[in-house]
Amino acid sequence: MKLSIQNVSKTYENGVKALKNVNLEIGNGMFGLLGPNGAGKSTLMRTIAGLQDADNGSISFGEIDVAKNKQALREILGYLPQEFGVYPKVSCYDLLDHMAVMKGIVDTKSRKKIVNSLLHQTNLWDAKDQKLGTFSGGMKQRFGIAQALLGDPKLIIVDEPTAGLDPMERNRFHNLLSEIGENVIVILSTHIVDDVSDLCNDMAIILNGEVKVIGQPIQLIEKMDGKVWKGLVEKSELAHLEESGNVISSRLYLGKVQVRVFSESALENGFEPASSEIEDLYFSTIHGLKIGESN
Ligand code: ADP
């Protein structure tokens, strides 16, 4: 099934234009929506989930028109919101069981089977009797995925799932997401480039409410090939380089500055070709460089 987002715009009451004419077609697999804080990701996720209405445009999932048939959407939706609160005094098992009832899984026997299987899948079986208030950030996120997977959803939305997780927890979370079936759509909204490059077969970059880049990470990287250069420069040289308007990113390294620059032609003065990465595309997009568009 396909999720189709057409001409979706949203302006909040305070005048913030959070979404400006967003168009996206999303098919099965893992889709990464990448953008800095405030880009409009959560607004889009909440709109897709039917939790808030757009001012204009339409969103459909297969035959379901999201704005007109929220109940039908809810039945096939798994949603892990950015702020996922848990009841700290309730045990992991009891809350998941309760949420399964809420999702309409009323038959005790089959519910037990489903809940047990999800606890194994998310590696929370050994912690099932622990109170949720004792869970680490990573465990809470895995619990969040367990509840999002209840009821065999066809569309799964996870909003900023790895923010605040340590590298090991993030890795575990990535593995869990990558195991979700191929016949569902998983939308991963994040400001962390590696979440997208590690996991997603399709992606978009959103900035100030506008979708700036859409494509498959592999193809987007290929498009940049030969156009990214790296060099180590003195701090004093950086300002001059930045005047060219082609600096993709810079970071301090061994007391100097490691710079990545966009250029169609070879650069001299110690610059060498760099293998392009999604991070280059992301920073270029943020800085308004047309790296992904030129060919
Ligand atoms: P992201 O998820 O990418 O961080 P959001 O969708 O949360 O972005 O926010 C997009 C923009 O809309 C931001 O400028 C944010 O301050 C604003 N915004 C989000 N929610 C509201 C709201 N309920 N009322 C007013 N402005 C909002």
Proportion of strand residues: 25-35%
Poorly predicted ranges (pLDDT <50, ≥5 residues)? none
Bound molecules: adenosine-5'-diphosphate
Count of beta strands: 14
Largest sheet: 6 strands, mixed
Look at the structure and give the CATH class of the largest domain.
Alpha Beta
**Oligomer description:** single chain
> How much helix, percentage-wise, in residues?
25-40%
**What is the name of the CATH topology of the largest domain?**
Rossmann fold
- CATH architecture identity of the largest domain: 3-Layer(aba) Sandwich
Across the major sheet, the strand order is 6-7-8-3-9-10
Characteristic terms for this protein:
single chain; 295 residues; alpha/beta; Rossmann fold; 2 domains; six-stranded mixed β-sheet; four-stranded antiparallel β-sheet; 28% strand; globular; binds adenosine-5'-diphosphate
Structural commentary:
It is a single chain. The chain has 295 residues and is α/β, with parallel strands linked by helices. It has 2 domains: 3-90 and 148-215, 3-Layer(aba) Sandwich (Rossmann fold), CATH 3.40.50; 221-286. Helix content is 33%, strand content 28%. The chain has 10 helices and 14 strands. The protein has helices at 41-48, 70-76, 92-102, 108-121, 137-148, 167-178, 193-199, 217-224, 235-243, 278-286, and strands spanning 3-11, 17-26, 29-34, 56-61, 64-65, 77-80, 155-159, 185-190, 202-207, 210-215, 228-233, 247-253, 256-262, 272-273. The strands form 3 sheets. A 6-stranded mixed sheet has the order 6-7-8-3-9-10, with helices on both faces. β9 and β10 form a beta hairpin. α3 packs across α4 and α5 (137-148) packs parallel to α6. The chain starts with a strand and ends in a 9-residue tail after the last helix. The mean pLDDT is 92. The structure holds adenosine-5'-diphosphate. Adenosine-5'-diphosphate binds at residues 12, 14, 16, 18, 35, 37-43.
